[in-house]
């Protein structure tokens, strides 16, 4: 369909604007469902050729209308008119599709040409992208090189400034050192002179008083000179410290070799830049010369072509060839200089990269050394930590053992103290028993019993007087004495009546048998008390001193009896008595 193709190109109506949906959806979005399913069935049986045939038949059927429309009208025609053309007679479209004739070899050839054109376009696009990326990378490299060159220049300037400052500081310090040394030399000379004068004066002792005053003056001068010498020494040490600090600063600054390398790189960059500028100027001059020759050539050949073009045709051709040769030569020279400039740039980049590699290798080696050092240090610290933990565990075990030993010793000491206290209590009881037995053996038992009876009678009379009762007119016998058994009921001792204080002989004998197994002397003593009480019931006359001694003896006896049971029983019994 050549006419339709020409019309489509004139309207810039591309094939993808109307035929893309045909091949993508196999007319499912273009025709109705029955026609589209029929086309799909043929496509499944015959392949993609039916899609091409139906598209060609649609274009041939609508050629007359499409040629008369513009681009917008054609797009609307394809969207609204063509989908409804073959709804009534789908067989017509199929017949037209099978009636389309074309040369398959030519179609294959066109397909190959189309694929080659597309591949070339893709390659060109890839090449363009590659060139753009290379251009961008080159621009980035140029920017980085410019930044590096600026940084190097700044570093060089800073290094020169710092070195100048350090040189000034060194010069000032050297001057101060020279002044200090001079002062030290003058002070040492004065000291030597003073020592010489002292020696001379000691040699020539003519006048004792004058010599003493002179010696004192010389001593003061010598002390002053020593002080000055000490001050000069302190200043000299301070200057030496300053020199050491400046030397450390110099060592921390970059090496002269690195600065020399950076200066050489900067000089090389400047030389290359100057060469590139010179070559650019030469190219501009050559271009100007060629323009001038071209203008002259045009001015010469313009009149000749008007006058006699046949005669001067050979000369004009020669001039044209000469100008073309010169132009080619200029182009070749320009390309050659561009290549040289690029080679120089690549050399500079190579040098910069090699310097960077060396620096990075040095940094890597330094970092590896630091890593090895730190690993070794960590290993040492780990070993120290493990040793410290082990020692700590040993110390803890020793502490636990010592604590256990101390606790055992404390328990043993507590047991020993308890045993010693028990022995002390036994010894005290034995001592009291012996003392009481001695007292009982020394005194008369009958007299003591009479005194006790008198005292008891007096106490009963006093108690009855306190309670508002009448005192006994007759004396009571010893058989009516009752001693409270506090070993059984401690609380009843306070609330007992006065009559409970009168004991019976059975209670006394029960107390003797149950509370404390008395010795033979004590038992006889109690029996004697009972018998004497029965024999002499009416005797109550005694002196106050005898009564007091009897009361004291009675209290000691009660304490002695109750010491073997408990302190509470002893106190209760003594209180009751």
UniProtKB/TrEMBL annotation:
Domain Rab-GAP TBC: 1-47
Superkingdom to which the source organism belongs: Eukaryota
Coiled-coil regions listed: 107-204, 315-349, 378-469
One Pfam family of this chain: RabGap-TBC_2
Record's keyword terms, sorted: Coiled coil, Membrane, Transmembrane, Transmembrane helix
SUPFAM superfamilies documented for this protein: Ypt/Rab-GAP domain of gyp1p (SSF47923)
Transmembrane segments: 20-40
InterPro entries, per the entry: Rab-GAP-TBC_dom (IPR000195), Rab-GAP_TBC_sf (IPR035969), Rab_GAP_TBC_domain (IPR050302)
GO MF term (any one): small GTPase binding
This protein's name: EVI5-like protein
Organism: Callorhinchus milii
């Amino acid at each position: 369909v050549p006419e339709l193709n020409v019309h489509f190109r004139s309207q810039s109506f591309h094939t993808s604007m109307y035929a893309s949906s045909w091949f993508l959806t196999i007319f499912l979005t273009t025709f109705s469902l029955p026609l589209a399913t029929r086309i799909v069935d043929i496509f499944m049986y015959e392949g993609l050729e039916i899609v091409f045939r139906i598209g060609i038949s649609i274009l041939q059927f609508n050629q007359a209308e499409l040629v008369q429309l513009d681009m917008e009208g054609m797009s609307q025609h394809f969207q609204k008119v063509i989908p409804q053309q073959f709804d009534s007679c789908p067989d017509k479209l199929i017949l037209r599709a099978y009636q389309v004739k074309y040369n398959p070899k030519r179609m294959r050839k066109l397909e190959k040409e189309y694929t080659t054109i597309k591949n070339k376009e893709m390659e060109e696009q890839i090449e363009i992208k590659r060139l753009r990326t290379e251009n961008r990378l080159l621009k980035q490299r140029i920017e980085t090189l410019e930044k590096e060159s600026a940084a190097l220049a700044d570093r060089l300037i800073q290094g020169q400034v710092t070195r100048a400052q350090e040189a000034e500081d060194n010069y000032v310090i050297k001057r101060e050192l020279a002044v200090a040394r001079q002062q030290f030399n003058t002070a040492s000379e004065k000291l030597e002179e003073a020592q010489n004068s002292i020696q001379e004066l000691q040699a020539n002792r003519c006048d004792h008083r004058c010599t003493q005053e002179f010696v004192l003056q010389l001593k003061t001068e010598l002390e002053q000179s020593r002080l000055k010498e000490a001050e000069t020494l302190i200043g000299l040490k301070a200057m030496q410290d300053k020199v050491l600090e400046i030397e450390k600063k110099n060592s921390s600054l970059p090496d002269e070799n690195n600065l020399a390398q950076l200066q050489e790189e900067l000089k090389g960059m400047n030389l290359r830049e100057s060469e590139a500028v010179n070559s650019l100027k030469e190219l501009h001059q050559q271009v100007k010369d060629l323009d001038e020759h071209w203008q002259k050539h045009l001015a010469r050949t313009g009149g000749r072509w008007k006058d006699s073009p046949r005669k001067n045709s050979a000369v004009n051709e020669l001039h044209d060839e000469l100008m073309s040769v010169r132009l080619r030569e200029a182009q070749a020279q320009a390309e050659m200089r561009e290549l040289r400039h690029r080679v120089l740039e690549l050399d500079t980049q190579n040098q910069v990269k090699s310097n960077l590699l060396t620096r990075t290798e040095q940094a890597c080696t330094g970092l590896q050394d630091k890593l090895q050092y730190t690993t070794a240090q960590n290993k040492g610290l780990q070993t120290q930590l493990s040793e410290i933990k082990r020692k700590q565990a040993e110390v803890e075990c020793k502490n636990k053992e010592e604590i256990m030993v101390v606790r055992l010793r404390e328990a043993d000491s507590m047991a020993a103290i308890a045993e010693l206290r028990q022995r002390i209590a036994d010894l005290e009881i034995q001592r009291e028993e012996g003392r009481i037995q001695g007292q009982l053996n020394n005194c008369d038992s009958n007299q003591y019993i009479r005194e006790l009876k008198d005292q008891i009678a007096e106490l009963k009379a006093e108690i009855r007087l306190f309670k508002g009762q009448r005192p006994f007119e007759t004396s009571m016998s010893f058989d009516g004495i009752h001693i409270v058994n506090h070993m059984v009921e401690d609380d009843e001792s306070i609330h007992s009546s006065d009559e409970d204080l009168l004991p019976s002989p059975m209670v006394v004998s029960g107390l003797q048998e149950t509370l404390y197994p008395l010795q033979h002397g004590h038992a006889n003593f109690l029996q004697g008390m009972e018998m004497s009480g029965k024999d002499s019931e009416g005797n109550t006359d005694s002196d106050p001193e005898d009564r007091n001694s009897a009361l004291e003896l009675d209290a000691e006896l009660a304490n002695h009896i109750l010491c073997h049971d408990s302190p509470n029983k002893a106190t209760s019994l003594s209180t009751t008595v």
